[in-house]
Amino acid sequence: MYEQLFPRGIEAYLAGGLCLGLGVALLYVATGRPGGISTFYSAAWSWLLDTPFFRQASLIDGRRWRLIYALGLLLGGLAYALLGLPVEASALPAWKLALGGVLIGFGARLGGGCTSGHGICGIASLSGGSLAMVCTFLGTAIATAWAVTALEV
Fold first, then answer.
1. CA angle, corner 61, sides to 58 and 65, nearest 5?
2. Cα dist. 137→81, 97, 100 in Å?
3. CA angle at 42 for the pair 140 and 132, rounded to the nearest 5°
4. What is the residue-level pLDDT of the chain in tens, covering all 153 positions?
5. Which of 3, 106, 115, 130 has the highest CB neighbour number within 10 Å of its CB?
6. What does residue 81 show for φ and ψ, rounded to 5 degrees?
7. Which residues contact 9 (CB under 8 A, 6 or more apart)?
């Protein structure tokens, strides 16, 4: 059964899940704040823009730790590449990747956080709103996958 679900083995997924869990636990213990990356963008813009939205105390007060958090994500990807681990290039055209990024960013702000923030940190903190968002994300993803598969036939 595992071979059908995980044709390349379960070890990488297990290691990734453990690293994510340890990372968000460390962040919570060190700062008392749940992880999630989508608010980093608003916090970063708060350095540059003087509009009321970007002057919120929560954005200004969280800029430093959010910057460190985002840099850690980049450094993790760099370490992965430097270790010579396998990297697969996307076959999608750049415009599709850009459009997907815009739609994901819009959805993350509309939903009050990104999938990882709600899925990993929100559910771990027993947030009912995060559970509802994750169910919405998954339901939409499943429906989209079915629709795309049906259109390809």
1. 110
2. 29, 19, 14
3. 30
4. 777 878 888 888 888 889 888 888 888 888 887 877 778 878 888 888 888 988 888 888 888 888 888 898 899 889 988 998 888 888 889 999 999 888 887 888 777 788 878 888 888 888 898 899 889 888 998 999 999 989 886
5. 130
6. -65, -40
7. none
Q: Supply the pTM of this predicted model.
A: 0.66
Cβ atoms of 40 and 67 within 8 Å: the answer is yes
Q: Give the CA distances from residue 147 to residues 25, 78, 144, 150, in Å, rounded to whole numbers and listed in that order.
A: 37, 35, 5, 5
Structure tokens at 106: 């819009």
Q: Are 111 and 134 in contact (CB under 8 A)?
A: no
Distances (CA, A) of 119 to 30, 91, 132: 20, 27, 10
